[in-house]
């Protein structure tokens, strides 16, 4: 799950990612509806800060989560 803003997503995306803007007022509701608790959810943002915050929120909702260290910036370097 990519938790970056729509502006960031327009610049570049991971084709298989689902999107839920961390800054949206309804982030928690949208993110929980989009995700399957029976499967691990990878969280990514630009640098890792927002996805760490999203991790804490979604962990409380019972999701199995993996925070992508370094965020999209690091993923792009490695891919």
UniProtKB/TrEMBL annotation:
Source domain of life: Bacteria
Pfam families in UniProt: Rhodanese
Entry-linked Gene3D superfamilies: Rhodanese-like domain
Residue span, Rhodanese domain: 2-79
Protein name listed in UniProt: Rhodanese-like domain-containing protein
Source organism of the structure: Polaribacter cellanae
